[in-house]
Amino acid sequence: KVLDGNFTGRAIAEVDLNKCEPWELPEKAKMGEKEWYFFSLRDRKYPTGLRTNRATEAGYWKATGKDREIYSSKTCSLVGMKKTLVFYRGRAPKGEKSNWVMHEYRLEGKFAYHYLSRTSKDEWVISRVFQKTGAGVAAASGGGKKGKAAVISLYSEVCSSP
């Protein structure tokens, strides 16, 4: 998708995450019952800035914790980053936390959008969206093995010694 914006995934739909509420996303997905994957462009908050707009009509996605590095299992070089976000209903700073979680995967290093297209501010990401149950966001952001398999073709597993 990064190399060809016209690429269409058979299993991953393209969605503008700022125009959809999280509870609308399952019906827009091409597959999945408890977690859904989407290609989306990061929407810039300001035309010349790098800050990402994460607001929807009903609320906003708030980043939790720090971004996690993803390394190639073959070369142990940095290939991507994973950001965990939680959806809040309402407006910051008084939004009400929901059980909707998003894992946003983006390319880094020599595969990052700014190395591939110097004229474009478009940055494609893959987002995994799901509703957490029980243990909370800490468990949801822990990564686990589930979910990584679905994006293994774009991002390799984390190296044990980078």
From TrEMBL:
Family matches, as InterPro entries: NAC-dom, NAC_dom_sf
Residue ranges annotated for the NAC domain, each copy included: 1-132
Alphabetized Pfam families for the sequence: NAM
An MF annotation (GO) of this entry: transcription cis-regulatory region binding
GO process annotations (BP): regulation of DNA-templated transcription
Origin species: Opuntia streptacantha (Prickly pear cactus)
Official protein name in the record: NAC domain-containing protein
Superkingdom: Eukaryota
SUPFAM superfamilies associated with the record: NAC domain
Swiss-Prot/TrEMBL keywords: DNA-binding, Nucleus, Transcription, Transcription regulation
